[in-house]
Design brief:
The chain is of the alpha/beta class. Helices cover 26% and strands 22% of the residues. It has a seven-stranded mixed β-sheet with strand order 1-7-6-5-4-2-3, with helices on both faces. α1 (12-22) packs across α2. The longest helix is centred in the first third of the chain and has 11 residues, at 12-22. The radius of gyration is 16 Å and the shape is globular. The N and C termini lie far apart (32 Å). 37% of the residues are buried.
Length: 156
């Protein structure tokens, strides 16, 4: 996933919430066609959802992202049905990128350009652990959430 740390969560939705909080997102672009849990995570974290249309492959449409990119700071890109969304055309919009790989583990370059990568590992997903979620990022969520005095004890 091209990230240094993996953080487990009790669900994919919780992993998305963790990603949005880590990125300090405020206004988030999501596609019209996706799991409702993306919208749930955006609302649950107090962000404003900006819902954009999909293209003929039922993937987020870069033309629609361009229309709304000046109103957003973050984009969640789910790769639906195992179809990989090309990330490069979306980089020009200077948005923080969260890739949701719940439906496409193993495809080349997943997460390479993303700030954070998330996945549900619930039943029916490509990685089925019976429940839970994972967030991959270059920030250690677990370590950073420890009180400073515990971090200092560990370092000594």
């Amino acid at each position: 996933m091209y990230k240094k740390y993996a953080t487990p969560y009790n669900s994919g939705t919780a992993a998305l919430c963790g990603a949005l909080q880590q990125l300090q997102s405020k206004n988030v672009i999501i596609p019209t066609y996706t799991c409702e849990d993306l919208l749930t995570a955006v609302i649950k974290t107090g962000c404003i959802p900006i819902i954009v249309d999909c293209n003929e492959n039922l993937q987020i449409d870069p033309k629609q992202v361009e229309k709304w990119s000046s109103f957003a700071d973050t984009i969640i890109i789910p790769h639906m049905f195992g179809i990989q969304v090309p990330i490069e055309p979306l980089l020009k919009f200077d948005l923080k990128i969260i890739e949701d790989v719940s439906q496409c583990h193993g495809l080349p370059s997943l997460g390479e350009h993303a700030d954070v990568v998330v996945s549900s590992v619930n039943k029916s997903k490509w990685i089925d652990c019976g429940g839970g979620g994972i967030m991959w990022s270059n920030k250690n969520q677990v370590w950073d959430s420890l009180p400073t005095y515990l971090q200092q004890l560990w370092d000594n």
